[in-house]
Every structure is written in structure tokens, then in C-alpha cells.
Amino acid sequence: MKKLFRLPLLALALASVSLASTSCSKDASDSLAVQAHDQNTMMSIMHDMMKMMDAMPKTQDPDQDYSMMMVMHHKGAIDMSQEELKNGKDTQMRDLATRIIAAQQAEIARFNTFLAGHKVEAPLVPAFNTRQQMAMDKMMRANDLRVITGNTDRDFAQLMQDHHQSAIETSQAILDLGRHAETKALGQQIIDSQMMEIKEMQEWLLKNKGY
């Protein structure tokens, strides 16, 4: 009688564990839908930006190359922010996108003004381009490791962090290796503002990550 009594209890316990496991699995899948990277609009923007930057002729003048590269890099951020405004729903992320567009359009204007009055200078500094390429490669690896959901607000907050981090690292390179006050001032401005924006996106994701 004891054996007959214990077996149903054991079966009941195993069934309960199985149901709990199924429930948890279902909840997890419901809260995190995954989208293929090649189907995601923001990832496409990132890849298109990288193609343009990779095709940019390098002069080995750090101030020249930094300015040219950041114009393209900023255009990528603006395109991503416009996609957020088009399809995003979260008020905070839409506000951030609006601020990014305004700030980076103003910085593009300053970079273009610098480029219009600047000529490539010697000695050449290939170390800048090495650091810049490392930052961009790191950005794309980080992007490729992100779990993309197709939720515009969430994808924007994730991918823009990596985009900003590459700008920060490249801007630090211009502070170390650049020769002009204007590019250094822009570099410091980008570091300061984008570090704060990364913090804002991280805090938003912790509250709204959906899993």
C-alpha cells in the first residue's frame, strides 16, 4: 500500500514541474519575438552606412578623415532616428530621436564648414584610421550580437547604443591624434552628449526590455 501511495504522488509532482516549465517557456516566447537581422530596417541602415564609410578614401590626415567619416556616421544615426519617428510608439524614445536628429544635423554643418576650409596636412597619421576602423568593426560585431525583436523602440535603443559607442571611441582618437581645435571641440561634444544618451537608452531598456 505504501508503494501504491507514493507513486501517484511522484507522478503528480513530475506533472506539476512539467506544467510549470511549459508555462515559463510559453511566457518567455510570448514576451520576446525575434526578427532576422536582414529583415530589420535599422540593421539595414547600419549596414548601408558601413558600406559608405568603408568606401571612403582615407587621406591619413586625422582631422580630415574624422570629419568626413563623422558626416556619414551622423547621417546613419539621423536615418535610424527618422525610422524611430516613423514607426516607434514610445514617447521617450521618439523624443530622444528628435534630439539626436537636431544635434547631429548641427554637428554635420560644423564638420562641413571645417572641411570646406581645410586642406590635407602632413605628417600623415595612419594610427587614427586604425583606431577608427577598430571602433566601427566593434560596433558591427555588437550589432550582430543584439537580439532584434522588430519592436522599433527597443531596436532603436539597442542599436543606437552601439552606434554612439563607436562615435565616442573615434572621437577619443581625434582628441589624442587630431591637430585642430574645431575637430577636437566637436569630438569632446560628441563624447559628452552621447555618453548621456547611452545612459538614457540603457535605463529605458531596463524598464522596457520586455523579458
Automatic annotation (TrEMBL):
It comes from the Bacteria. Residues 63-205 form the DUF305 domain. Keywords: Signal. The keyword Signal applies. Residues 1-20 form the signal peptide. This is Uncharacterized protein (DUF305 family). It comes from Hymenobacter artigasi. The lineage of its organism: Bacteria, Pseudomonadati, Bacteroidota, Cytophagia, Cytophagales.
